[in-house]
Task: structure prediction
Amino acid sequence: MRIKVLLFGSPGHGSFNLCGLAGAEIAQRAGQQVELIWIESAGPAIRAARLIDICHRGADLVIAYGSQGDYPVAMAAVRFPHIHFIVVQGSHLSENTAVYGVLQEQSAFLAGVLAAAESRTGGLGHLAGVKSEAALRTRAAYVDGAMRHAPGMGMMTSFCGSQDDEEVAFETCEAMAKRGVDVIFAPIEGGRPGAVRACRKFRLRQIGSILDWTENDPRLFLGSAVADAGRCIDAAIKDYLAGNVRFGERTLFGVERPEYVRLAMSPAVGAGARQAVDEWSHALARGEVVLSETYTGREFELSGLLSRL
Result:
């Protein structure tokens, strides 16, 4: 069985790709003949050309990890109807394609509950990079969780324009701290060291994302909105070999599968906050909560920030 897994970007860069690499390695350790291929994050047309070339060399199953795979898979699936494709955290569906993914917004909702339960000032922050559908849903879910637990909480939310700019992350956190924010949810990548530096300097507490950042610094990180999309690679391969992939459909994992989606919490989190997170987590798992998908409040921007990016 010729199985090829595509990761977009550079090896070792970003929490999301670290999860993808780990997921592919799980399948390899289980004895699956999985070829891992890195594709630089160039434009969609270049990614599509690379995928088409890969398909010409032969494959039974191609797994594209990340929404960057949607367009390439859409182009390749029509030209190679005998090949099966799965996009992890994507959206493209057809007769020979399927989507596997994790509900990251559920962990973001729980991050909002935790932030509201642990805030001492009543001021919460949200710091993300570039606006995308997934990033907007994550922000909306975080605010939803905070406001359901403690209506009337103060909220400052910012898309600073870059996932990887440490200085912009630092300055945004600094500005939020000066306006009374004491807990910041930061679903960012390379800019995280800047946010960490600001949190240490201004005595803020942070909630991370994707990976369990509480393992790195349980005093600074109250929690982390874990969403391990990489596990979808191993799950998709197992389903494919068993003939259980539902092509033309989505297979999504949420908090009912905590190995995929959960809120990790620091030992420093109080009993009341833990109970609140557990109660909301069980409600999500039972399907009793419909998450908000939009945020209609104000957004915070540093003066002159746009001119620097």
Observations:
- The chain has two domains: 3-103+229-253, 105-227+261-302.
